[in-house]
Amino acid sequence: MVQFVLDILPPILQKIPYSTFFIFGIAALVALLTTLVNRLLTDPEKAKTVRKEVNEWNRELREAQRNKDKKTIEKLMKKQKYVMQLQTRMMWQSMKVSLLFLIPLLLMWQILGGFFSGVSIAYFPGIGSDLPIPLFSYSLIWWYLLCSLLFGTTFSHVFGLTEVSE
């Protein structure tokens, strides 16, 4: 399967700027798919309410600790188990999408890593196509990360999963 995909990808995609736009497009597509699935599997309004409640509890606890208000700290600590359950439910909601996309993303990285092995993907202004970072000098990783963050954030706002004010 992997070899089949590697055989059908045109070699021109291994040259800048084609490689740059190809990874840009893949990052956009993956971010759009994950955002749509996230939107379908989660309730953004409920998540917003839970986030607000957890943040409020944390703020009150920090304030009580700063003021050394033992009574309020004790009262808030009684609610800690409930808050932890809320956080666990929120985390599970976001993990559903990650688990759903884990295998396809690993397969995609196997294919991209093989196809772009030893190839520069993008030219970073002022740095060049090879980044001087020992572990991540491979521009595929950085370019995909940058594009993925851009599209993931944009689509999350567009589909109402997060708000600009948060």
Describe the structure.
The protein has one domain. It contains six helices and no strands. It has helices spanning about 1-10, 20-40, 45-65, 70-80, 80-115, 140-160. α3 packs across α5. The protein is elongated and about 70 Å long.
Question: What is the helix/strand order?
Answer: HHHHHH
Structural domain count: 1
Give the mean pLDDT: 85
What is the CA–CA distance across the termini? 42 Å
Task: Give the structural class.
Answer: mainly alpha
Residue share in helix = over 70%
Number of strands: 0
Q: What sort of overall outline do the alpha carbons produce when their principal axes are compared? A: elongated
| Rg for CA atoms | 22 Å
**Unreliable residue stretches:** none
* Percent of sequence in beta strands: under 5%
Largest sheet: none
Number of helices: 6
